[in-house]
Amino acid sequence: MTDNNNFDLIVIGAGSAGFSAAITAADAQKNVVLVGHGTIGGTCVNVGCVPSKTMIRAAEAVHNAKAAFRFPGLFAKAGIENWQQLTEAKDQLVSDLRQKKYADILPQYPNITYVDNGPASIVDGGVKVKNQTFSAPKIIIATGSRPVIPDIKGINDIPLLDSTALLELKEKPKSLIFVGGGYIGAELAQMMARFGVEVTVVSRSSLLSGAEPEVSQNLSKSFENEGIELVNRVAYKSVAKTNDGIVLTVERFGKTIELSSEHLVITAGRRANSDNMGLEEVGVDLDAKGSIVVNSQMQTSNKNIYGAGDVTNRDQFVYMAAYGAKLAVKNAILGENNSYDNSTMPWVVFTDPQVAGVGLSEAQAKEAGFEVKTSVLPMDEVPRALAARNTNGLIKLIADKKTDKLLGGQIIAHEGADSIQTLVMALKASMTATDLGATIFPYLTTVEGLKLAAQTFDMDISKLSCCAG
To answer: Which of 453, 454, 451 is nearest to 442 (CA)?
Structure first.
């Protein structure tokens, strides 16, 4: 078969964004070609969200047992009895979810033609996959991203681990240096430290530099309390392999520092998979990082080509990839005119304490021209945290000083991730801080902290009795 012209849409990429696009089109009775390359399912299920979060939970179980001493009279301990058994269970979970959520889905959509022998390139007349050319009036590119290798002298001459390779280690390492203190580096570094690995995190700025300063500082203190060494605000000089392992040389405040470990883990961000697809030849613009530039309708500079997911200059979260892909399909072939809206997009970092946020940060709100007021509530003012004897963390809310309207917020707390959606709904409903502070919340929950943080704008909540607000 060399020519196929009876399709309404071609989707390149069989990860979460690609599947979302293909299924959305198929549900609308459109004929779709879905082109895959590599393992079906993409980053999240195979090498990202699923394997990392199950291993993070395992590390948390070890840590929580050791932390039982927070409660007087308790003692417990836990550790790794069989590393291979632990990682095999992780691999089985990945395999099961990949089969259930991706491979088994395809037979339910006879109007999706799956082609799994990519890579694909865009040519005159459509999309070429080896000796096959598929034609359709619209194309959606959803090819994802890959880890970035930073430009450090000698880095191409040493064995490296990225987030994928780290999760595939057959033996537990003794020591690790993480290059990069973003959300991927933070999650995996703490995970490995809790498994008993000596961990150093090196970064150009601070840990989770994109979070509120109070949040970044709190998480940094938590890491240091768990024995994780943080070496921030550095300039990378070189890296080399020695008989003892890897040596990374950095400069910090004018002083040269040598750091050594068994492995070097690169967690310095990700880059779009946009290479060798012929995008320039068909007029698809890329930004400086190689990401496909899309407008608010997910359309590229070529009116017949759309993008979705990590390959674009949009948010790199799996749920936003799926959301953007649905919009792309509706706009490309269903005649709609939907706009990408991330104004109430929640985000979570699965460290412990967990970090989560939504809306504008204080700096972003000021940059947007708002006269800002903020509320910072330490978790030792939240009864749930006191009862759990885990008061590490805080909640920060941002509001418009003139209107009292909530603009955003971040939380760092042991159970913070499951609380952020309440703030999402508050922002979506255009609630004021006063509205949120007057809302009834269940007592002895972490999410009650949002109510208390909202009340902190106008009162000293330490003067209130329990439930008095």
So the answer is: 451
Q: Name the CATH superfamily housing domain 347-458.
A: FAD/NAD-linked reductase, C-terminal dimerisation domain (3.30.390.30)
DSSP tally for the chain: helices H, then strands E: 13, 24
The whole-model pTM stands at: 0.95
Pick left, alpha or beta for residue 198 (phi over 0 → left; psi -120 to 50 → alpha; otherwise beta).
beta
Per-residue pLDDT at 1 exceeds 50: no
Q: Which CATH number fits domain 3-147+271-333: 3.40.710.10, 3.40.190.10, 3.50.50.60, 3.30.460.10?
A: 3.50.50.60
The β-bridge relationship of strands 161-162 and 255-261 is unpaired
pLDDT tens column, 275-306: 999 999 999 999 999 999 999 999 999 999 99
Judge whether 207 and 216 are in contact, CB under 8 Å: yes
Pairing label, strands 347-349, 354-359: antiparallel
Place of tokens 């992780």: 90
Q: Which residues contact 425 (CB under 8 A, 6 or more apart)?
A: none
Gap between the Cα atoms of 465 and 469, Å rounded: 8
What CATH architecture does domain 155-268 belong to?
3-Layer(bba) Sandwich (3.50)
